[in-house]
Task: structure prediction
Amino acid sequence: MNHSSNDCILVLARIPDLDTGRRLYNLGDLDAKGTAKALYHLRKQHTGKTELPPYLYRIRALLFGEPKHETSHTINDAPSPTYTFQFFADSDEKQLLQRFLQHYQPATQRLMSWQGTQLDFPNLHYRLLKHGFAPLNPTQQISLYDVLSPFPQLSAEDKPSLAQSQALFNLSSRDQSPTYFADDSDGEYLWQAHQKNDQRAIQQHLQQQADSMVQLLSAMSPTFI
Result:
């Protein structure tokens, strides 16, 4: 699948859906910290990892990047995509999604995320349905992770993470956070930032992932673009 000049970048900040978790596991009136801890613990017991299933996350914030019409150029003079990013954060998830949908044009734009198929797009799908919005067309969604590793026979451990993909293409990692993207600890890092109401940390974390994706898209030119 080739990259299009109408492909937008989406990065989600997910935190545990505490209300659904309490109902699902009969956690009663356990406080937010205790509920999140219980959800991570139960998930690790079941799968060995703390990453929750897509339906057990709510969207705390998102970064949406729309392509600019002009392009820069890579060292080999291939066109390199450039983006304008907008950060959306709202304590009311429905309002956050409504703001996103006011900017995203599904009739003419495709959505690209890092681990879209595994987490981002299913999560977005469930949350849109939960709040009464129409689901997005999955054929208009691209998972960069799957583009780089379109081999179902490989385990997740054998596929490169975002940081490892940057190393593969000899790109410098811009990550400054204690964790890196698309692993168990990513969700816990964002949960901790949410508890501290550290909006800046959340935004920086999302922007780092978006910047890394843009780097990869540039490195993959012109074969992918």
Helices lie at 18-25, 32-47, 93-103, 116-130, 144-148, 162-168, 184-195, 199-219.
